[in-house]
Amino acid sequence: MRPARVLSTFATAALLAAMALPAAAQSKKKIGLAVANLQADFFNQIKQSVEAYARTKGLEVIVVDAKGDATTQVNQVQDLITRQIDALIYIPAGATAAAVPVKAARRAKIPVVNVDRNAAGAPGDTFFATDGVKATRELGEWVCKKTGGKGNAVIIHGQKGTTPEIDRSKGWAEAMAKCPGIKVTAQQYTERWAADEGAKIAQDMLQRDPSITIIFGQADGIALGASRAVKLANLGKKVWVVGFDGDPGGLEAVKSGALDATVTQQTQKMGRMAVDAALDLIAGKKVPAEQLQGGTLTTKDNVAGFIAKHP
């Protein structure tokens, strides 16, 4: 019977070791990252920052890309919930149905960290974004100064009703209120904040009104498209084109003169902060409801530093 006891001891030890393995695996926290559209460089930078920083924390990150479709994103977040994520970092694909994923996560007792866009009526547990009103106001004031406070301006908006679209519109309006010599003569919304939309809209605007001298594209992609339309229009005069985001392509365009200015957001920092906030919420810690970050007016004078190292 002695050998049987030895075998039993070994079997017990093996069983205990086997039981310990799943517990160790389960200790690795799992973060869901629901992104609006990875075709946009801004969102790609957030994704890369979250993934890189999460690795240093020993976290697993599951990324889903809505490709700009709100219905797709609702389904993706439901799938993340079934995969038992511990927290959700969420960038809504649009204003429509933006609250649905937050409510679903809340029902599953999963904390939500919103980045760049919040959901009206159902905000995340915390929200990281650039102070778009302040940053756009500074951009508009710079345009007013550079143009001598005169001109006909058009605005090519981002996706209607989203947090950045609302804030950037408000900031620009505040700047123009102090610059009465600049008249906003036309405005139009995009669906994807994309360069092809910016190019098409700007082309139509310039054909209808060649007196346009200022174009504000509410994202660098939009502004880059508008810049191409200005070049093709060959109006024989200066048309100021400014954007927002500080995407690598936008920064290079500022350096080359294709864009006159942009606002550089702290994308890398916001990605890291979102991960830290997710960990705090998982641990039951309280975090501020809103955590706005500064954006920096970027022109040829300071663009080189942002190209060398994006904040």
How would you explain this protein's 3D organization?
There is one protein chain. The protein is of the alpha/beta class and 311 residues long. The chain has two domains: 135 residues, Response regulator (Rossmann fold, 3-Layer(aba) Sandwich), CATH 3.40.50; 133 residues, Response regulator (Rossmann fold, 3-Layer(aba) Sandwich), CATH 3.40.50.2300. It has eleven helices and twelve strands. The longest helix is centred in the N-terminal third of the chain and has 25 residues. It is elongated.
**Count of folded domains:** 2
Average pLDDT metric: 92
> What is the first-to-last residue Cα distance?
69 Å
CATH architecture of the largest domain: 3-Layer(aba) Sandwich
Query: In the CATH hierarchy, what is the superfamily of the largest domain?
Result: Response regulator
Task: Give a summary of the structure in a few sentences.
The chain is an alpha/beta fold.
List keywords for this structure.
Rossmann fold; 2 domains; 6-stranded parallel beta sheet; elongated; disordered N terminus; alpha/beta; single chain; 19% strand; 4-stranded parallel beta sheet; 311 residues
Topology overview:
Layout lengths: L1 H25 L3 E6 L5 H16 L3 E6 L4 H13 L4 E4 L8 H9 L4 E4 L10 E5 L1 H15 L4 E9 L3 H15 L4 E9 L4 H14 L5 E4 L2 H14 L6 E3 L5 H9 L5 E3 L2 H16 L8 E3 L2 E3 L4 H6 L3
Parallel strand pairs: 1-2, 1-3, 3-4, 4-5, 5-11, 6-7, 6-8, 8-9
Antiparallel strand pairs: 10-12
Helix pairs in contact: 2-10, 3-4, 5-6, 7-8
